Amino acid sequence: MLARVLRVAGYEVAAFASGTTFLESLATRVPACVVIDVHMPGLSGLEVQSRLRTMGSAIPAVFITASEERKLDDDVRAAQGTALLRKPFPSADLLRAVESAVQGTTAGPS
Predict the structure, then answer these.
(1) For burial by CB atoms within 10 Å, which of 14, 28, 33, 50 has the most?
(2) 18-23: long-range contacts (C-beta < 8 A, 24 or more apart)?
(3) For residues 45 and 80, what is the distance between their CA atoms, to the nearest angstrom?
(4) Helix (H) and strand (E) counts in the chain
(5) How far is CA 71 from the centre of its chain?
């Protein structure tokens, strides 16, 4: 659903089965922004972001989560995430967060 919303808004979208697969894809393509779930099988979203930073990448990251854990706000800020959206969230919030990330501004946690 996220990919569809972004495509309809005019973004080129690539989806990946895992954080590892996404990181491997960076050898051939660097996105303007990444939308990443905090809790995923394998590498968590925060681990993916940490690896991006270790690689010297400044790709902005919009985090999404179903968790209500308030500590995640701090974790996302510490990881230099541009936004944290809690599921379920309106499509407009996703679009606003991605646009802010692509433009280099911070949308902040929702």
Answers:
(1) 33
(2) 18/42, 18/43, 19/43, 19/44, 19/45, 19/47, 19/48, 19/51, 22/48, 23/48, 23/51, 23/52
(3) 12
(4) 5, 4
(5) 17
Q: What is the pLDDT of residue 12?
A: 96
Statement: residue 23 has pLDDT above 80? yes
Structure tokens at 71: 């500590």
Which residue in the block uniquely carries the two structure tokens 């902040």?
A: 108
* Confidence (pLDDT) at 104: 87
Domains of the chain listed by start with CATH number: 2-109 (3.40.50.2300)
